[in-house]
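Protein Record: Sequence and Backbone Structure Tokens
======================================================
Tokens: labelled as protein backbone structure tokens, with as many entries as the chain has residues.
Question of interest: how does this chain fold, as expressed in backbone structure tokens?

___
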Amino acid sequence: MLSKLLKYDLKYMIKNMCVFYILSIFFSVTTRILFEVDQSVIIKIIGQISVGCMFAMLANVLINTMMRSWVRFSSSLYKDESYLTHTLPVTKNDIYNSKLIQTFIFSFIGFIVILISLFITYYSKENWQAITNIIKNITIGLNMNTLFFVTIFLLVLFLEMFNAIQCGFFGIILGNRKNNGKIGYSVLFGFILYLVSQTIVLSLIFIYGLFDSSVMGLFQTSPTSIDINTFKVLLILASLLYVLIIYCMSILCKRTLNKGVNVE
């Protein structure tokens, strides 16, 4: 039954997100074409408009992935659609897992679309060489494999976004347990939970720093005097902490859901 729930969740997200994916790629292609032709005044103006539209679509990919995930979560569990959802022979754990998997998939797709769009727009041998040189200089200083560095850096960004979305889920769950002002409480609780999750990450990094002087330097020295090798440890530690927080929060969300749902 989880697969059937997921199928409907994915259909909803595809219907709402496809337009932003298509427009992101479209404006990246038009921008690339306009950048390649002779740069008359009109072409430059149109090119800048195109690149502005491309970045606007990339922002919409991120924002709408979050917003649509929250809207889908709320409508499935607490709005008119919830009357059907709660009559299905599924557990609330399955319902939550479906929303979480859907969020993971479309957060990942969103990141891929953004990378592809930027690649289409700006790729050239010179730009690629400049980027790889910068990354190589960083990774040499960090004594880290280049592919590993890029992967772990993108992973932290991805987990940060995924954590923010799940904080929104938890906020919606807690907000809808109130009798009045459910939307306001949902936003408030979600924001508070996000701040709490960030505080937990920083606190755990600080605790780790008690046993690792290089990490403790992040809390004691100015940015210019931080040992660059701590960046490697920080990225790895942050990614592990975000995975732990996401896992623990998902358990709390499901436990709270299983206490009962107040449908509007």
Observations:
- Residues 28 and 94 are 38 Å apart (CA to CA).
- The mean pLDDT is 83.
- The chain has nine helices and no strands.
- The two ends are 25 Å apart (CA to CA).
